[in-house]
Amino acid sequence: MIKSEQDILALVKKDSWMMSILNAAHTLQLPDWWICAGFVRTKVWDTIHGYTKKSELTDIDVVYFDRANTDENFENHLEFQLRKRLMNEPWSVKNQARMHIKNGELPYISTIDAVSRFPETATSIALTLNEKKELTLAAPWGIQDLLSLQIKPTPPFKEKETLAAIYEKRVYEKEWNKKWPKVTVYTIKGELMEEKKGSNG
């Protein structure tokens, strides 16, 4: 049973693949770096569902914060460096010091500030290895929704109509409750989201 942040950390420490990913990212020595979103959420939900084979990730999201160098090409260079270490992984590296522009928001002040602006509370979760290589977890909106398998919008996505539309489109298309049947998905208004109906055609 996963009940706390310590339980999540213990789960990750026992996963040699996850630790190899974190160690690879650590070698880049990026400022304020974390691995976030599906990397953490998938592990927790797979475990709660009793899956023995890990669900595949579309991306491994490495995020960091560096105002001194916001050149997108440098992020591509970092992805190349990670592929040299672990070539078969779907690396994605993004400097959060520039992502506010893409998202049409005010500048972020840190990586975790940016993570707090993700669409879902259960996705706003991140892991890093500190200077002593100790595993650390950050959860700007807490871990309750993650552990209770609930997809809900983060406060920033409730505040703006444009973001609310993005949230509902995203969760509708992702169909997380099909991959993980115990997951419950909520609309911006806090109502249960209707299941996507399959086509017979």
CATH first level: which class?
Answer: Alpha Beta
Q: Give a short account of the largest sheet.
A: 5 strands, mixed
Calculate the mean pLDDT score and round it: 93
- Count of individual beta strands: 7
Quote the distance from N terminus to C terminus. 42 Å
**What is the domain tally?**
1
The global form is: globular
Describe the secondary structure blueprint for this structure.
Elements: H1 5-13, H2 16-26, E1 34-36, H3 38-49, E2 60-64, H4 72-85, E3 91-95, H5 96-103, H6 111-115, E4 126-129, E5 135-138, H7 144-147, E6 150-151, H8 155-159, H9 161-174, H10 176-179, E7 184-185
Parallel strand pairs: 2-3, 6-7
Antiparallel strand pairs: 1-2, 1-4, 4-5
Précis, in short:
The protein is an alpha/beta fold. Helices cover 43% and strands 12% of the residues.
What does this entry look like structurally?
- The chain has 201 residues and is of the alpha/beta class.
- The chain has a single domain, classed as Beta Polymerase, domain 2 (2-Layer Sandwich).
- The protein has helices at residues 5-13, 16-26, 38-49, 72-85, 96-103, 111-115, 144-147, 155-159, 161-174, 176-179; strands at 34-36, 60-64, 91-95, 126-129, 135-138, 150-151, 184-185.
- The strands form two sheets. A five-stranded mixed beta sheet has the order 3-2-1-4-5. Strands 6-7 form a two-stranded parallel sheet.
- A hairpin with a 5-residue loop joins strand 4 (126-129) and strand 5.
- The termini are far apart.
- 33% of the residues are buried.
- Mean pLDDT is 93; it is low at 197-201.
